[in-house]
């Protein structure tokens, strides 16, 4: 890919929406099939509708798997970190700052939930902004928490699950 053709998102994405209903700006579909074991998490293949994502899913070694593919936690961590990083950059751009040294690391832990005995994810987000004064960086992070839809989803739980039986 030629990096000269890449652009940051427009600042207009920071404009408030005043509509009554959810307004989708982008939609994608990733389909997972079960692979050799019939279990998407253990041996699945994940493919996006545009073909840009095509990867093998494998259990990590901690679950007895080979660890030679990616897993849902890694994919979620990548999406969360990328989205939060983007939110920070948009906010900085709005304030006339160029922050090329921002680093966001999302640590996602899959584990047992003591509330219901099932499973849960715990997300630990670490943000490095070495060229920004701590007080300013903390304000950027607070504002990015309100802007980033992954952070909002983690706080509010906005997943819509619809079962379709073919």
What does this protein structure show overall?
This protein is of the alpha+beta class and 166 residues long. It folds into 2 domains: 10-70, Single Sheet (N-terminal domain of TfIIb), CATH 2.20.25.10; 71-166, GMP Synthetase, Chain A, domain 3 (2-Layer Sandwich), CATH 3.30.300. It is 30% helix and 19% strand. It contains 4 helices and 5 strands. It has helices at residues 40-43, 72-94, 134-147, 149-156, and strands at residues 30-33, 45-48, 54-56, 103-112, 119-128. Helix 2 packs across helix 3. The longest helix is centred in the middle third of the chain and has 23 residues, at 72-94. It is globular and about 50 Å long.
Give the arrangement of secondary structure elements.
Elements: E1 30-33, H1 40-43, E2 45-48, E3 54-56, H2 72-94, E4 103-112, E5 119-128, H3 134-147, H4 149-156
Antiparallel strand pairs: 1-2, 2-3, 4-5
């Amino acid at each position: 890919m030629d990096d000269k053709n890449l652009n940051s998102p427009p600042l207009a994405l920071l404009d408030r929406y005043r509509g009554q209903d959810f307004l989708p700006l982008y939609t994608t579909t990733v389909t997972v099939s079960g692979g050799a074991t019939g279990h998407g998490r253990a041996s699945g293949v994940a493919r996006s509708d545009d073909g840009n994502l095509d990867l093998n899913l494998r259990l990590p070694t901690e679950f007895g798997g080979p660890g030679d593919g990616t897993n849902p936690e890694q994919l979620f961590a990548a999406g969360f970190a990328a989205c939060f990083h983007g939110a920070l950059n948009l906010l900085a751009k709005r304030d006339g700052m160029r922050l090329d040294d921002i680093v966001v690391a999302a640590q996602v832990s899959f584990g047992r939930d003591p509330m219901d005995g099932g499973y849960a994810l715990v997300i630990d987000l670490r943000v490095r902004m070495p060229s920004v004064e701590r007080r300013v960086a903390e304000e950027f992070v607070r504002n990015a928490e309100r802007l980033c839809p992954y952070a909002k989803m983690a706080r509010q739980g906005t997943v819509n699950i619809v079962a379709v039986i073919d």
